[in-house]
Amino acid sequence: xxxxxxxxxxxxxxxxxxxxxxxxxxxxxxxxxxxxxxxxxxxxxxxxxxxxxxxxxxxxxxxxxxxxxxxxxxxxxxxxxxxxxxxxxxxxxxxxxxxxxxxxxxxxxx
Amino acid sequence: xxxxxxxxxxxxxxxxxxxxxxxxxxxxxxxxxxxxxxxxxxxxxxxxxxxxxxxxxxxxxxxxxxxxxxxxxxxxxxxxxxxxxxxxxxxxxxxxxxxxxxxxxxxxxxxxxxxxxxxxxxxxxxxxxxxxxxx
Lengths: 110, 135
What we know:
heterodimer; A: 5 helices; globular; B: 135 residues; alpha/beta; five-stranded parallel sheet; two-stranded antiparallel sheet; 3 helices
């Protein structure tokens, strides 16, 4: 499977996750979000960028509980809660945001 | 009330060359989502898994040692390293990754996760665990 972004084709797995995370660019996130009828705002980008930094440091995509806690610590309690994150990413904050961020599906996510 | 069990993951093998170390780490991270009481022990060549400054570029394998530093985020803060295994390999705690966790109840104070214990002490700790998983 592949996804078409600005005339370039990127390989994705059967669930739509980018095959090679080094190929990621912001336009890929925009296209993936559009397919889900989701308009990316600054709030979305805050989480997507956070996940990319987390992966860079620890080489894993965090579980949703860990993501929520870490966001709370970095961006404040009004953002570090599941209600806020699920409003941004209704398909599951870890799952959906990781996909847009070009990361693999979080470890332990089924 | 859910009954919380004490899980102990015992890591005995060098990090690369077999899949055990990475598999163990993945199971630990998955298991942590179920809010059990999780502890890790590193013995024998397993102590090499948490040695700092790992470089796998010549091996063509992903260096997953940075992931151990995420254990604190998963509320895993009981990491036991057997003293005799370190000594037999000429290693000290200073050769290991500095693994920490942050105590939410003490304004996120950073605390050490690694405890170096003697083989005798480790035996007791293993005896007190409800579930032992060997990797």
